[in-house]
Amino acid sequence: MTRSRSITTLKQRDALVQSAVDFFVEGRLNVALQQFVEGFNTLGLLQEMRAHPDLFRSMFEEDVTPLKAKDLSALFQISFSAPGTHAREIENWTICFWRDWLIDVEEGECAPLTLENVLEVCLWVLFYTSQWLSLSAHN
Question: Which of 15, 31, 68, 137 has a Cα at 20 to 30 A from 48?
């Protein structure tokens, strides 16, 4: 049977919070952590990770390098029309405007829009366009 107690001091509150954290970390999280460790032990990977932590660090730490306009531009391969055609001239202008706009976004001139937002939209468009093309090909 559990009994309720009222908390009357900050010290009691802090003790309750610490107890909840301990229960979560030592209880629920501990099982998941043990499974994680066992998975790395399967092929001897855990021993290698302990022996060479610097080699594995990038796999577990977030890369804080900000996305740059040139990185986003490099993701796409452009298929231009034949040189000298009107279509190629329009494509050249479009690419110039696209790259200039990406630089503006990178420099914060289009805030709150970020390059990460642009990448999300590009990926969304590519995903749904490829799905639509796939469905169109089967019909």
Answer: 31
Determine contact, residues 56/49, Cβ cutoff 8 Å. yes
Residue closest to 114 by CA, chosen among 64, 68, 65, 70: 68
**Tokens linked to 27:** 């209880």
4 is a domain residue: no
Range of the domain at 46: 10-60
Q: What is the pLDDT of residues 30-89, one digit of tens each?
A: 788 888 888 888 878 888 888 988 888 888 787 778 889 999 999 888 999 999 999 999
Tokens representing 134?
Answer: 């796939």
On whether both 99 and 39 belong to a single domain, the answer is: no
**Same domain for 128 and 75?**
yes
Overall average pLDDT of the 114-121 stretch = 92
Q: Which of 26, 42, 60 is the endpoint of a domain?
A: 60
